[in-house]
Amino acid sequence: MQGFQNHFLIAMPALDDPMFKRSVTYVCEHNADGAMGIVVNHPLNVKVADLLEQLEIAYDAKSPVAGRNVCAGGPVQSDRGFVLHTAKAGYHSSMDLENGLMVTTSKDILIDLTTDRAPDKFILALGYAGWTAGQLEQEIIDNSWLVIPAENHIIFDLTHAEKWQSATATIGIKPWQLTNEAGHA
């Protein structure tokens, strides 16, 4: 089985599901049981400060982080926060990923987000994208996704609006060159 962990799934133009249209999804885990990823470019109309306030977590309102948008990470457990971040040990519920990344779901990371204890770079998302065994592979065969190796700078250093086009550009493709037709038999 081809593993897609530490890859981006770039939504093809024909994928018109509102959750995934023009999305870039970072694949955190992929194995024989299925896959889990976080959409990194669909901002919600919710700021980090709004979410922390709703959870009754103290935060620094002057921190630039407080004004960042929370992302819609996917349709599964959309009421639960997932922090995709550069490696920083010490949180209660973290999963080590590849390429110096971690995903953390515990409250202790939320307490740190607007402080100098926060990970260097992070995205806070509500929910995640999940696929059952073989489902992601079938969606790729059906031409729903373009799969490329993930690059941290696309996740953290670009605006949400730039990520979809920039991800395709890493392999020399412009979005207008993508077709709805699959190129296999």
From TrEMBL:
Q: Which domain of life is it from?
A: Bacteria
Residues that span the membrane, as ranges: none
Alphabetized Gene3D superfamilies for the sequence: VC0467-like (3.40.1740.10), VC0467-like domains (3.30.70.1300)
Q: Which InterPro entries does the record associate with it?
A: AlgH-like (IPR003774)
PANTHER family according to UniProt: UNCHARACTERIZED PROTEIN YQGE (PTHR30327), UPF0301 PROTEIN YQGE (PTHR30327:SF1)
* Protein family membership: Belongs to the UPF0301 (AlgH) family.
Listed name of the protein: UPF0301 protein GCM10008111_01710
UniProt lineage: Bacteria, Pseudomonadati, Pseudomonadota, Gammaproteobacteria, Alteromonadales
